[in-house]
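Q: I'm writing a short explainer about GNAT family N-acetyltransferase for a general audience and would like to include a description of its predicted shape. Could you first generate the structure from this sequence?
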Amino acid sequence: MDTVTITRVAQAQWEAVADDLVVGRGDVSRRPDGRLFLSIDVWRDAAFDRLAATMLADLPTPLHTLVGEDDHDTTARWERFGFTVGRREGAYDLPTDPRESGLDATRLPAGVTVLPAGEADEHLLRSLDRAIRDEVEAAVGRRVLPAELLAGPPGDTLVDPSKYAVAVLDGDAGYAGLVRVVRVRRRARVGLVAVRADRRRRGIGRALLAHALEGLHRDGIASAWTEVDDSDVPALALARAAGARRATGHLELVRR
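A: Of course. Here's the predicted structure. Afterward I'll give you a sentence or two in plain language.
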């Protein structure tokens, strides 16, 4: 093929051109937690290396990208540029019918109330979100947190407070746990279920998930999906206890 020319056409987008035709595009996005994610889509294989080299020269590290767990060719391409596996994440289908999920017998733990999505105090919700993320990062590192899919201001990890239901424990000044659900047509994504470290092992996480799935089932949504880091044993146990079935998976690659 003729020489490929790479042009940065916008602050976060690059184009590869050959024979006056666009043969590939690359872009970078900043997730709410601050991580930079790259994406490259090419129509001629030779354009990938040129795009990757140019983008990496223009951007600071660390950098991240996502590839399908079975896409060995694309993984190898990124590995040539110094990317390594940062995390492995499975995508799971969740039935919303409590008779299928096994959550039909779930009862709220003593002293716990769940506030439905949209009813949480935003200040308390943001405090809980920040506290949970700080706890996870201090204990095992940020990598086990979901790869956020919603765009927002840098550092603002709570993109849309109306998507969160929260658990309130009697006597607490703040919230004990949260669950985020984003509806997409006739399905929904359970993006995060999390409980404060000092409030775990009380059944709060299971109660929050049961609340979320029950609401979806009541609205006629038959299934949801969620992503779980393969190393996050408690989250995997919770998902599987709710009847989750692994559908696919992906790798998060990182270049430091």
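A: For your explainer, you could say: DSSP finds six helices and twelve strands in the chain.
Q: Perfect, that's easy to follow.
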